[in-house]
Amino acid sequence: MTDSLISSAYSQALEVIASVEPRIAEATRQELADQRGSLKLIASENYASPAVLMTMGTWFSDKYAEGTVGHRFYAGCQNVDTVEALAAEHARELFGAQYAYVQPHSGIDANLVAFWSILANRVESPYLQKMQAKNVNELTEADWETLRHELGNQRLLGMSLDAGGHLTHGFRPNISGKMFHQQQYGTDPETQLLDYDAVAAKAREFKPLVMVAGYSAYPRRVNFAKMREIADEVGATLMVDMAHFAGLVAGKVFTGDEDPVPHAHIVTTTTHKSLRGPRGGMVLAQEEFAADVDRGCPMVLGGPLSHVMAAKAVAFAEARQPSFQAYAQKVADNAKSLAEGFLTRGATLVTGGTDNHIVLLDVSSFGLTGRQAESALLDAGVVTNRNSVPADPNGAWYTSGVRLGTPALTTRGFGHDEFDTVAELIVDVLINTTPGTTKAGDPSKASYVVGDGVADRVTKQSAEMLDKHPLYPGLVLS
Ligand SMILES: *Cc1c(COP(=O)(O)O)cnc(C)c1O
pTM for this structure? Predict the structure, then answer.
């Protein structure tokens, strides 16, 4: 029943759109066709359910609702209150969190909200206290000047970008690398694994206010109990950014010391990666931070996206089903198959394997840069993204790695054997690709030559698998 409902709902929606701007309807149809026809291995992407997607396309989009549940700066927010309260309740239940703030529009926004709540709670400053106590008028221009310096010069310790950390964890081009006095911890040069003793030594020396754990390109689990111990020893606040692996936490693949929620003071996440919800962000906090997290709007956010908060509630309800736990376990199992598939074919993996949803392939053994590998794979319909490897000799633009993730294809129903085949196809492309030369005849880091017929062969083989596991199987557009 739902298949035909979904098919007619989308077909009719596209007709409505086409009556205004047919090129947008056409691009939307084409996007579905393209997504159906490519091997999506981008580790940060997924396919949300039709229920989640449809929830985003309603009149909740039209409502302004600055403020918090029951305390809005606009009239007529009673239905937004229902939606936001439900999304927060599902989030608290799903993650066992004391407090959930579902307004952030993205992962970056969620991190800004968390940073502010930590500054507001932890910086010791008489000016800050006056500001918080609403005695703002007592602050002179000179007080504000001091306060700006105090707030903007706090210490943050995060994982370095080339070890797998995220831009928002103190990387210079991001605001976090400018407003904070930042230092980074990396991974062990031999094993490429997190070295907790080295993190602790750095924390003791640097004494950060904020310690950030979490990653975008580290193919291993993190022991958050240990990270909290380190933070406590040096008086730091532990913030865990689980944007990438929230689905594995929700699906109870990461439990105990690997579950960040009971260990971190504050947890931030996106909702659209392994968690398989709408594009958005969220903050989970221990009670003491809740009041300042709630000031996310107007501190760094404008009005909440009520239609997306509604879709978050739907996605969290889905993630509370036993079927989501089975999905999350398959995501991790499939990553193991993919890694095995590479290792048995002689490829090199950062850290030598995986125990989450990410596989980081070091393509230097194929004589390629990440940029060349990414482009050659795309020619064969394999969608990945290039990524630095630890101490990358090619820098952050060309890189030496390709990052792969299993959440999206697992949603399509790919299993052990298919992921082994995916490894086979990727190796087939890469061993048959050679670097090109620049116009001046020098070796290029960007151009490449794929052997004759390779892209066609791989495209055909992946099409067979994609046909067997269709995306949105019941959805037929008229
Ligand atoms: C993806 C990601 C973000 C940013 O999320 P956006 O929604 O793109 O802003 C932040 N932190 C980590 C660790 C991420 O992986």
Answer: 0.96
